[in-house]
Amino acid sequence: MSSPLNEEGRKLLFSEARTHNAWLDKPVSDATLRELYELMKWGPTSVNCCPARILFLRTSEAKARLLPALASGNVEKTRSAPVTAIIGYDGRFYDRLPKLFPHTDARAWFVDTPELAEVTARRNSSLQGAYFIIAARAVGLDCGPMSGFDQAKVDHEFFPATRGAGSDFEQEYFPDSHVKTNFLCNLGYGDPAKLHPRGPRLDFDEACQLL
Description:
Layout: H1 7-15, H2 30-40, E1 52-57, H3 60-66, H4 72-80, E2 83-90, H5 97-100, H6 114-138, E3 142-146, H7 151-158, E4 179-188, H8 204-207
Antiparallel strand pairs: 1-2, 2-4, 3-4
């Protein structure tokens, strides 16, 4: 039986973790981003479908491609963050099910049912996005997850339906038009001096019922 996480771990991941909008001038290494992924990938998904696809924008040139798609309130916090992750989902995740779920032909459940594939990809990439935030905190990073962007613009810029010459993302994980954006998450080392007072949460009896 697993031992409960100690109080320090619970504080790190949940009770004292904060959403950051201002960042210290401290870089995030590629090794740390790889460590983050190696943790988050173990979170459960339906039929182990693992639909999340992530772009880590680390350079000013990559960020410049994203900024025009952001709501005005998200521009400066994103420009100043060491890394911005685009958490996307692959609508053709089922093509990888022979590897991820090999004991039955799970691909057949989705290949001819696009509505089921879409809702499965979006729901499970959202789950993986939550694992992403927890994993980031576990490796010592702060997070600033965001909505507030034009999804069509982000998809067109980073997951184009037709690649032109010199596309930045030609690896097999980002096939033409299969990937769509779910949400964005700034990463780095947050400036605690610029945090706002923490917002309240619902009490157990306001959000839960025991049946």
